[in-house]
Amino acid sequence: MIVLMPEQIDNPSTFDVAIIGAGPAGAAAAIHAARAGYETLLVDGARFPRDKTCGDGLTPRAMHQLEKLDLDVNPKYRSLGLKLHGFGGSVTAPWPQTYPVQTGTALPRLHFDNLVVDAARQAGATLWTGTPATAPELSGNRIVSFRVGEAEVRARWIIVADGVRSTFSKQLGRTWQKDEVYGIAARSYATSPHAGEPWLHSHVELQDEKGTVQPGYGWIFPLGEELGQVNIGLGALSTARRPAKINTKKLLEHYAEQQRPEWKLGPIEHVASALLPMGGAVTNVAGANWMLIGDAAACVNPLNGEGIDYGLETAALAVELLGPKDFTLAWPDILRAHYGQAFLLARTAARLLTYPQFLPVAGPLALRGPVGRILMPAAARLMGNLVTEEDRDLIARAWRMAGGTVGRLRSHSPLWSTD
Ligand SMILES: Cc1cc2nc3c(=O)[nH]c(=O)nc-3n(C[C@H](O)[C@H](O)[C@H](O)COP(=O)(O)OP(=O)(O)OC[C@H]3O[C@@H](n4cnc5c(N)ncnc54)[C@H](O)[C@@H]3O)c2cc1C
Known about the structure:
The protein is α/β, with parallel strands linked by helices and 419 residues long. It has helices at 24-35, 60-68, 109-123, 167-170, 248-263, 308-321, 327-352, 358-368, 370-383, 389-401, 406-412; strands at residues 13-20, 40-44, 57-58, 81-86, 89-94, 105-106, 126-129, 133-139, 142-148, 151-160, 175-176, 182-191, 199-203, 206-207, 213-214, 216-222, 229-238, 269-277, 282-283, 290-292. It has a domain at 182-277: 2-Layer Sandwich (Alpha-Beta Plaits). The chain is built from eleven helices and 20 strands. Strand 1, helix 1 (24-35) and strand 2 form a beta-alpha-beta unit. It is globular and about 60 Å long. The structure holds flavin-adenine dinucleotide (FAD). The site of flavin-adenine dinucleotide has 39 residues, from helix 1, strand 2, helix 4, strand 12 and strand 18. This is FAD-linked oxidoreductase. It holds the Pfam family FAD_binding_3. Residues 15-316 form the FAD-binding domain. One of its GO terms (molecular function) is oxidoreductase activity, acting on the CH-CH group of donors, NAD or NADP as acceptor.
């Protein structure tokens, strides 16, 4: 890693593109920008390798983007799809053939993010780590400069990929709309002799110690025989009005206890939790010469909390947009064109899960009865972020049957809008 001392940095330092945040979104943007021939700076406040609270799962959608970046991740382990369990039933959903790559994988973010950052450096991006970007200086809604420690940075374009906490983008006016569905989630690692199991597993009937069904789902994502571990975690959906009243870490202990006999799990380690803005529920995501990508733009699937693929995709889209155009309206338009409908549908379905009464009634129907046989494979694909046009239509119809209309919701839902 390159860590420059203040005296080694030109003041001001000038670049074509400056990218703030070197998670998967920022590092992928740096690869695309450097490959396109732009003088590129990639800045992260942390030093790599660094951990990031995550389920570490990569679906074929993410693999497709990684292939474009020439990254082969955890080559000895491949997943085939998702198994969904609960309420006395189980559904197996192999990854559909939507993408040329039809397998997924998983790798702890400690290693995965380091791999992508390293590829950015090799592609020719200048990398500064260990000091955060601060103090954006604005002229209208154009960023003129910002600081990294003592250094003043100037760039024609700035791509902000500073993640869920998004301290830099808050200063640019980015606002998280917590009335919309957001996630709370916790993950941990445990050893298992079944770490080579080729299916991701998700449990939608999550019970606490008293046997009460909690509004969330658990996951076990194997990491391959070589690592000999699984990522085990759980997530729940919330809104400001109906916050999920669960203690994620305590519930995770209990979930691991329940799964231990089948998976022969060792003790759970490195337990960490985080909040997740989802489904584009943020406003002010672009200015004249800057754009937010990845988690900073809430590009996370509301039904499964998956965001690495969107981070990688928005990185590619942002670099394609670089040019003389003003990004203020162009960038949210691009996000809406690519993800608007899918995110609104998923948010709508996810909202149902924030009603404590919903799962205990709908769960058995969905996982056992004839309705389940039709709906659940589609729902499993939704959770795996691999929705086909037919699935989209099926979920849309199911939602309309449930008495609402997505259209009504769509009219006032914040979706990367500008204040
Ligand atoms: C419990 C949990 C489980 C999840 N499971 C999955 C999963 O299985 N699969 C999946 O695809 N997604 C999953 N996600 C979502 C996924 O983790 C995120 O969508 C993904 O990390 C987004 O990448 P990013 O690059 O936008 O942000 P991040 O990975 O958060 O990276 C942001 C970077 O910006 C840096 N930064 C922040 N502020 C500054 C600053 N001012 N200056 C410089 N650097 C800064 C940070 O240090 C960090 O390195 C999960 C999330 C959670 C919380």
